[in-house]
Amino acid sequence: MTEARYRDGAKRIAPIALAALAFGVSFGVLARASGIGALEAIAMSMTVFAGSAQFAVVSILAVGGGIASAILAAVLLNARYAPISVSVGPIFVGGRPRRLLEAQLIVDESWAMSRRPDGRYERRLLVGAGLVLYACW
């Protein structure tokens, strides 16, 4: 098997990227309609990068729910990333800062796109796909 490239991950995720872009725009619209400022919505997207959790937080806050409830909902929704991260943890190489930065790109779609036919996962596919999704979001 030839070594995968970041570009291969980007190509694999391209059909999904348009949907991710639309989903990201809809999050921005909902956030603004809920009274969250544009900068706050952008900062949340840059740091959380998890659509379902972001929608939950905005929805809870929009109906008057507390910040603790919103954070708890986000944490519970993102709990699925624990086993996903364990499954791909060994593919991340380099120093701790690099591994932590690249691990931020682990989302459902990039994880799925990084699976090779032999059942293992490929870091460059995951990072390439994750970077495209991050840019779209």
Number of distinct beta strands: 0
String of helices and strands: HHHHHHHH
Largest sheet: none
Distance between the termini: 32 Å
Average pLDDT figure: 94
Large-scale geometry: globular
Uncertain ranges: none
Strand content: under 5%
> How much is the radius of gyration in Å?
16 Å
Helix content: over 70%
**Helix/strand/pairing category:** mainly alpha
Topology:
Layout: H1 6-33, H2 38-47, H3 51-62, H4 67-78, H5 81-88, H6 96-103, H7 108-113, H8 123-136
Question: What this model shows, in words?
Answer:
Helix content is 72%, strand content 0%. With 137 residues, it is an all-alpha fold.
Overview features:
137 residues
Could you provide a short overview of the structure?
The protein contains eight helices and no strands. The model has no long low-confidence stretch (mean pLDDT 94). It has 137 residues and is mainly alpha-helical.
